[in-house]
Amino acid sequence: MLNIRRLSANAEGFREELDRLLAWETVSNGSVNDIVTEVVNNVRANGDAALLEYTAKFDRLTLKTGAELEIPKARLQEALERIPADQRDSLQLSADRVRAYHEKQIQNSWSYEEADGTMLGQQVTPLDSVGLYVPGGKAAYPSSVIMNAIPAKVAGVEKLIMVVPTPDGEVNDMVLAAAAICNVDAVFTLGGAQAVAALAYGTETVPAVDKIVGPGNIFVATAKRMVYGTVGIDMIAGPSEILVYCDGQTNPDWIAVDLFSQAEHDEDAQSILVTQDADFAEKVYESMNRLLPTMPRQEIIRKALDDRGAIIVVDNEEQAIEMINVIAPEHLELSVDDPKALLPKIRHAGAIFMGRYTAEAIGDYCAGPNHVLPTSRTARFSSPLGVYDFQKRSSLIMCSAEGANTLGKVAGILADGEGLQAHAMSARFRVTD
Ligand SMILES: NC(=O)c1ccc[n+]([C@@H]2O[C@H](COP(=O)([O-])OP(=O)(O)OC[C@H]3O[C@@H](n4cnc5c(N)ncnc54)[C@H](O)[C@@H]3O)[C@@H](O)[C@H]2O)c1
Ligand SMILES: N[C@H](CO)Cc1c[nH]c[nH+]1
Ligand SMILES: [Zn+2]
């Protein structure tokens, strides 16, 4: 039987128990920090030699030269041609839908002119180069290739460098095929903190990039935070999470497997059911126990559910919403009759899956929105990966002679107030009356 926590929101000590459940040391675990610091420093100092050492140690893949870390472009194309047609068509359909959705996110430059002819505005430009981290330790993620690469392409990024670990040298053809479909510029067989460090600092073989995006395990998340500042990062997208809120009217088997779907990613994943119907909670628990033995990844699912999962019974919808906003889940399923009515009350969630027919898994693969989402409650301040992560903005200021005359006087007074003489003089040189 599963040992998933079954909690009542009104029980004594519930809030403390919930806090313990949610506490996830995403990037602050001491021993992980030590390992990642050593890896990052070593890659920075020794380049390819360190990459070869860690790839042998952590991914059990022994390579002789840095050049072997790169997967040739011809192999990506071969993989695309080799995979079965239904896989190729599904990858293409997913890429098309993800592109169509992300094209709506493009931010454009703008400007306006004031009465005296002064022009002000904002110029939006794509980043020059980005590193795409595609996870590959416990599962292969062709879908993450699409979710990382397409928004970068839509934004107009010139250079896309992808890294993906290939533990024991096992290369996944669908991952390579997805890279071919997305027209990624280069792919390196690298994972973990060493891949992040290589992208941040560059090595003899791996080019340094301006920003690193993509999800990964605790080593990847910790390394991303460590190199931030040298490069940009998107967010901390760690172990997957799902919170299903159900009014008790959906098939319990559907809900059980929705909870499994994120638990199967990782022993550290988190799946939570919130419902006001105690009998339904029991039915979902029964479904989980019946269906678990049929799951090929049952060991990972069991550990994730026992260690970090929960079934929470609340009094009513209002209490459920309060719980959702506290947990700020990466994925929220609203398995109710009228999900649109709840929407205005949901303040924190990476992605919201609405209605009984919307399985979170559809969003993972092909709905269109991005599946790289903020985890560990960071949905309180972060958003899904999007085109905006690959664009930046420059302010535009162009003074007319009349504008320089007016604004020069104001700037002069403010600069005097700050005691900055050169600022004041520079502005006043353009004042004509
Ligand atoms: N939030 C999202 O959008 C999203 C999407 C897909 C996957 N995910 C999550 O990404 C994670 C992927 O994790 P993964 O492990 O499968 O792949 P990963 O590629 O993130 O990590 C594998 C790498 O970790 C390193 N590593 C493993 N053990 C190590 C150790 N003891 N010391 C140092 N380095 C070590 C190795 O270099 C290995 O290549 C999962 O938690 C999954 O839930 C999240
Ligand atoms: N659920 C993951 C994001 O947390 C994404 C994914 C990829 N493949 C399957 N699922
Ligand atoms: Zn998933």
UniProtKB/TrEMBL annotation:
Catalysed reaction equations from the record: L-histidinol + 2 NAD(+) + H2O = L-histidine + 2 NADH + 3 H(+)
UniProt cross-references to InterPro entries, sorted A to Z: Ald_DH/histidinol_DH, Histidinol_DH_CS, Histidinol_DH_monofunct, Hstdl_DH
**Residue positions of the active site:** 330 (proton acceptor), 331 (proton acceptor)
Coiled-coil parts of chain:
none
The signal peptide here is none
Record's Pfam families?
Histidinol_dh (PF00815)
Provide the residue positions that the database annotates as binding NAD(+). Answer: 133, 194, 217
| Names of the cofactor(s) | Zn(2+)
Q: Give UniProt keywords alphabetically.
A: Amino-acid biosynthesis, Histidine biosynthesis, Metal-binding, NAD, Oxidoreductase, Zinc
Binding positions for Zn(2+)?
Answer: 262, 265, 364, 423
Q: What is this protein called?
A: Histidinol dehydrogenase
Where does this protein come from, organism-wise? Thiomicrorhabdus immobilis
